[in-house]
Amino acid sequence: MSKNREPKKYMNPYLGGVLLGLVLIVAFWVSGRGLGASGAVKSVVVAGVETVAPKHAQNAVYYKQHSEDSLKSWLVFEMLGVLVGGFLSGAIAGRLKFSVEKGPHISGKIRLIAATVGGIFFGLGSQLGRGCTSGSALTGMAVLSLGGFVTMAAIFGTAFALAYFARKLWL
Amino acid sequence: MGPLVANEIISPDTNLFLAFLIGIGFGFVLESNGFSSSRRLAGMFYGYDTTVLKVFFTAAITGMLGLLFMSLFGWIDLSLIYINPTYLWSAIGGGVIMGVGFILGGYCPGTSFCAASIGKLDALAFIGGIFLGVLLFTEAYPLWENFFNAKYLGSPLLSSVLGLSRGVMTLLIILVALGMFWVGEWAEKRFARDDYKLNQK
Fold this sequence. Notes:
The complex is a heterodimer of chains A (171) and B (201).
Chain A: H1 13-31, H2 38-52, H3 54-59, H4 61-65, H5 74-93, H6 108-128, H7 133-142, H8 146-163, H9 167-170
Helix pairs in contact in A: 2-5, 7-8
Chain B: H1 12-32, H2 38-43, H3 51-72, H4 88-105, H5 109-117, H6 121-139, H7 141-149, H8 158-162, H9 166-190
């Protein structure tokens, strides 16, 4: 290993949680809604299909119901901000680096396949559950929404239940 | 006074600009806490790193308390805050599918964008997967349309379902969270690994 400068330490998680909560409160106060992520992908997918295959979009049920969705949506702008904010934090802390992060006992190729498959599941599930960890679970819990707690329990409960079977990926 | 956009204090376009700034804050805090690391996020499920639990629940509690106090001071009208509706079966079904995605992929959508922003290629693969998954949902929508819309309960609050006031509900959740933080701190010692360090203050 070369003697690169060590990346800065991560923030204290409880302090980080308070700061994340404050960002959430600002979102409520400014926009009357919480944070989200998967909704931005949905907007891009709907807009993309409408552009690439307009005939198909006119006939398929989902796109007809969501034709008012556009790229000029709150979540799209918020997620563009996430890319900038993450990059800034990484730059300040010295963590900008192209890499494939993986458990110690799998190859990079396996990791990339597992990540892609995981993304497919998460993308599908987020649409079925009307929001992901940010929009449904975190924001939902902050506003005490029943659905938020249910989705949070289902996500984390399932991941815990399957952790044993996926251990080779991570341990 | 708040929410600003609902009370027409700011315009819809200003709202979008502020969404961008809010996103910067969101991404910055996620990255500063290591949510750009799949091993850290997955550590939650093996106990060697429970940062996810600590940050996630501290944030939810801070959000709950913030809303309570701001409404008490008359700074925000809670009736104008969006409450996500509950469709019970799809909330559970979607959550289960997301849980599978989490343990395989090591990210959720927000954290994958954050990780991709600092160069994690596995996060980029995950994002590619999300797009495919969303496309699968929208294309095959008739297959799950009924399931998606089943068992609609409106937008109930956990507090009203349990017959508690907002304040008492929040207090209970804080107590539960404190218990979980204790378990998390214990787990990080019990399941610590030689090949992984927490690297945090």
